[in-house]
């Protein structure tokens, strides 16, 4: 996301520079654009980018990461006297059954009035609700808790972007960039693990760079990171390769290709295929790989750090902490298997909610930008669009 924002920012700045000078695109008429209009449009776009980034970080990274480690429904016995009778409890509960009046057990119970009635409380996971998760984070870590781990995330993303640029060189071939991304993100596995530890743990007095684990832990987390990075690129690239290998999309770069009406429907069908393939790969590959990485990293959380949501460090007895002589981490297969079906369903529901929120934000800001463009440029909007198209095509 950081790489995308930087590239779009540079492209927008270059495009605006080209629009502010007289351009000979289209019908050879110079296009004069008001700097104030450009400034307003740029400010709106900047707010849009920052807002979408904040939404994506909180709802697309922080909350799903917590969901991946939170234990399923927990149970506890609570004295009935501790529960307010004026308000119904916000949980499902089963009270201990009372014996029939006059029975032997009833007599025994009346003889021992010191033993309080107990209520079996089943607490729902915090991450079952986005609102509840935000309120929980705010209560435990303050108002800015929705951006917890941001410093570590920015450093990790920036260094990753630099390494990808170095490893891919000047090549613009997508497959080379994908390979460079896999290598770079695997090398930075400890930074990624540090970000996960910051997100899932209670607030710490340590600075973000003090949370980075020793590089000796890299062999333990590298396999899970490599798996995650590989599936990331497969989900991004494979649908484009498949849909672009046949039909109308295959000929889009051919200057002699002259599409007609039927090609429009063919492109729409191929786009739908690409969307379906992306969704399928995301559910079958990306989610399991992400869960595996997060849970393997969580199994190596230092003993002095407490998680901000309920978390079973033993993964149901499948791993032993290093402090008592265990390996101190869970394996790739067990990391996924220990993630219950109830938790998987909860995570998928969360991702659907996040997708709907993101789509709603995109639609809202698109409408705002279109309305602003009509108000700011008026009748010259068509010429401005031609100028932007010409500059984008030559770049």
UniProtKB/TrEMBL annotation:
Region of interest: Disordered: 88-110
Signal peptide (from-to): none
Source species, domain of life: Eukaryota
Alphabetical UniProt keywords: Membrane, Transmembrane, Transmembrane helix
Protein name per Swiss-Prot or TrEMBL: Amino acid transporter transmembrane domain-containing protein
Residues annotated as transmembrane: 36-59, 150-170, 176-200, 221-244, 264-285, 354-377
Source organism of the structure: Exophiala bonariae
